Amino acid sequence: MISIHHLTNSRSQRVIWLLEELGLKYNLIIHERCAKTRQAAESLYQVHPLGKAPVLIDGDINLAESGAIFDYLVATYGKEALAPAENSVEQINYFYWKNFSEASLMPYLAMSQVFTRITQGTPFFFKPLITLLFKKVNAKYLYKNLKIELNMIEKHLGTHQHFTGDNFSAADILMEFMLDALANRFFSQTSHPHTSQYLLRIKQRPAYLRALKNGNWSEDEFNQYWLHLKNS
Ligand SMILES: N[C@@H](CCC(=O)N[C@@H](CS)C(=O)NCC(=O)O)C(=O)O
After folding, report:
1. Which of 23, 38, 51, 95 matches a 20 to 30 Å C-alpha distance to 121?
2. What one-character DSSP code corresponds to residue 33?
3. pLDDT at 228 over 70
4. Domains parsed from the chain with CATH numbers
């Protein structure tokens, strides 16, 4: 049976959602974050050398990296269900958005997390300087690029029901997590109506709701995690 190592309120939530969409049975192993540092539990290092979630175990296969896990699960168990047909326009969209979520959106979110951690760990005396520095980097680089990306997403969702086209796919699962972190901080129903409506719609999927429950998802913790993300 498939086992999935999951870190609470993290991107590994997406693998649980994918497994639910695929209707697969799985064994869920939940690792808690350290209350103080918010970092992964030591137990994850026993599963994979990087000590990060998600990690999928399927027979002899021990696979980390969200994108790789998605590719493996869709190719092995999903077939046409969660990925568009070969050589279709939808497939090109699928390739683009699936990679975009990890390669273009996630780095900005991760960077902002790192800045916050550095600021928190900076001695009191230097804090104002570091805060000012990151504020400038955020405004001129990070947030500026995030806004450009969000505008592109809004335009795409203005003409597509889902990221690949009419049908739901695994790319939607990868994108939803990022958009959820950015919602109400970088965009709203007023500024990005198509993206907001898309999020509301997709979050009603039964598999999504089952995954939240199984993964012990806490909306409060998630918001707490991204609290520092705001427009400046
Ligand atoms: N690129 C990897 C990143 C994995 C990753 O950084 N996972 C985070 C969860 S959001 C983690 O385990 N963080 C714990 C830590 O860094 O201590 C993936 O997408 O699977």
Report:
1. 51
2. P
3. no
4. 2-81 (3.40.30.10), 89-225 (1.20.1050.10)
For residue 54, is the peptide bond before it cis, meaning its omega torsion is within 30 degrees of 0? yes
Using a 6 Å cutoff on CB, does residue 180 contact ligand 1?
no
Residue 89: C-alpha distances to residues 92, 95, 179 (Å): 5, 10, 23
How, if at all, do strands 26-31 and 2-7 pair?
Answer: parallel
Q: Confirm or reject: Cβ of 65 under 6 Å from ligand 1.
A: yes
Query: Residue 25, exposed/middle/buried by CB under 10 A (0-12, 13-18, 19+)?
Result: exposed
Res 225: pLDDT: 72
Distance CA 51, CA 57 (A): 14
Quick one: how far is CA 181 from the chain centroid? 8
State the chain's maximal CA–CA distance in angstroms: 58
Q: Closest residue (by CA) to atom 9 of ligand 1? A: 10
d(C-alpha 54, C-alpha 44), whole Å: 9
Percentage of the residues of the chain whose pLDDT score is greater than 70:
97
pLDDT of residue 120: 83
Two tokens, residue 3: 């086992």
Mean pLDDT, residues 87-98? 96
∠ CA 7-12-18, rounded to 5°: 140
